[in-house]
Design a protein that fits this description.
- It is a single chain.
- This protein has 2 domains: 202 residues, Ribosomal Protein S5, domain 2 (2-Layer Sandwich), CATH 3.30.230.10; 173 residues, GHMP kinase, C-terminal domain (Alpha-Beta Plaits), CATH 3.30.70.890.
- α2 packs across α3.
- It is built from 11 helices and 13 strands.
- The strands form 2 sheets. Strands 1, 2, 3, 4, 5, 6, 7, 12 and 13 form a 9-stranded mixed sheet that branches. It has a 4-stranded antiparallel sheet with strand order 9-10-8-11.
- The protein is of the alpha+beta class and 389 residues long.
Length: 389
């Protein structure tokens, strides 16, 4: 099943929704995209490299300035308006979906923004970023809110600071630890490009993909499975075991050649975890080199090597994910890989636009044959980062 809403529809719907809820015209409109980590999504926590794109699905925020200090947030996804005084913003004071936008307002103050004298705001949110499938729905929401507040309150914070604000909001208010690489693409991505992010230096560079010229697309396949618990905290603990046992600052400081020299210091399981991270860091750099020298078609083999490592070294795959990947490859995908290590079992496949229909038919048949629920699918492409409209 494919879902699609154009950006113009979201803009119109957001402005219309704001007026219906709050009774006056919004003073401004901002939007930010979801994101997809192509490679390195777990090396982000190990001072490593991440290769991501912002996707062509966005979250839009309309804002209106109030004469008091109230911050009110409404959304198409919620029945009630969340309301709090700016003077009462604390991590424990906000709950539910509103913790994301209100948490960003709180976190701005933690990064030096003087919000003691700023006016209240009314905010209305609409989005076509799928939720819970690894496409950065929370990052899109937080980024759109951050740029809206930065402009409306004339804070003049730079992009990296705003990304750290959204990361802090998610950790302190929402209770979810994320790498900064989850947030950067939503701010800085460019059309038809990926972003190479260095989580140690916080540097980022656009890498042209030329997917439109190559007539390639990305098919996101949501198998619908839910893990009993996310693997992220478990793998984080294993990475820390590896670092402590080897007495190094980070797995970033090892290479595929030097890691085997430390093998006797680690258990077999912890060694495999470290091996994935070390090799993944170099896969990201290899991917960037391949993109610049040979073009986007060269990513296929690297994506497959990454998936094999996630399956064999990280023990993070499952029957549904394996089936989705096998089916996509059998029906012409250049490469396919699971997305993240959270609750969902989602895969992305890089493929020719002309083969999308064949893969969709193949997925329907393969999943039905195995007695699995037919997956939801989304066709996405690389897009630009946050905008004021």
């Amino acid at each position: 099943m494919r879902h699609s809403v154009s950006m113009s529809d979201i803009r119109d719907d957001t402005l219309s929704g704001f007026q219906q809820i709050f009774g006056y015209e919004a003073h401004g409109l901002w939007s930010a995209p979801g994101e997809l980590s192509l490679l390195g999504d777990d090396s982000d926590y190990a001072d490593g490299y991440v290769l991501s794109i912002a996707i062509n699905r966005r979250t839009a925020v309309a804002a209106g300035v109030r004469k008091d200090r109230k911050l009110r947030v409404a959304s198409t996804e919620a029945d009630e308006i969340a309301e709090i005084s700016l003077d009462s913003l604390e991590p424990d004071a906000v709950h539910g979906w509103a913790a994301y936008p209100l948490g960003v307002a709180w976190a701005l103050g933690q990064f030096g923004a003087d919000i003691a004298g700023v006016p209240g705001l009314d905010l209305f949110v609409d989005s076509d970023v799928p939720v819970g499938v690894g496409l950065g729905s929370s990052a899109a929401l937080e980024t759109a809110i951050a740029v809206a507040l930065n402009d409306a309150w004339q804070l003049s914070l730079d992009t990296t600071t705003l990304a750290r604000v959204t990361q802090r909001a998610e950790k302190s208010v929402v209770g979810r630890t994320t790498g900064l690489g989850d947030h950067i693409p939503s701010f800085v991505a460019e059309d038809d490009s990926a972003i190479l992010f260095d989580s140690r230096s916080l540097d980022y560079d656009p890498v042209k993909l030329h997917m439109q010229d190559a007539e390639l697309a990305i098919l996101v396949i949501d198998t619908g499975i839910e893990r009993a618990e996310p693997l992220d905290p478990v793998r984080f603990g294993e990475r820390e075991q590896a670092v402590d046992a080897m007495g190094i600052p980070s797995l970033r400081d090892l290479s595929p050649k030097t890691l085997p020299e430390r093998r006797d210091k680690l258990s077999e399981t912890v060694y495999r975890r470290a091996q994935h991270i070390v090799n993944e860091n170099h896969r990201v750099l290899d991917a960037v080199k391949a993109l610049r020298n040979d073009g986007v078609h060269a990513l296929g083999d690297i994506i497959q090597a990454s998936q094999s490592s996630l399956r064999d070294d990280y023990d993070s795959s499952c029957a549904e994910i394996d089936l989705a990947i096998e089916t996509a490859l059998t029906n012409g995908a250049l490469g396919a890989r699971m997305i993240g290590l959270g609750n969902s079992g989602t895969v992305y496949a890089l493929l020719d636009e002309s083969t999308v229909s064949r893969v969709l038919v193949g997925l329907d048949g393969a999943f039905a044959e195995h007695g699995f629920q037919v997956p939801a699918t989304y066709v996405v492409g690389p897009s630009r980062g946050a905008l004021r409209h």
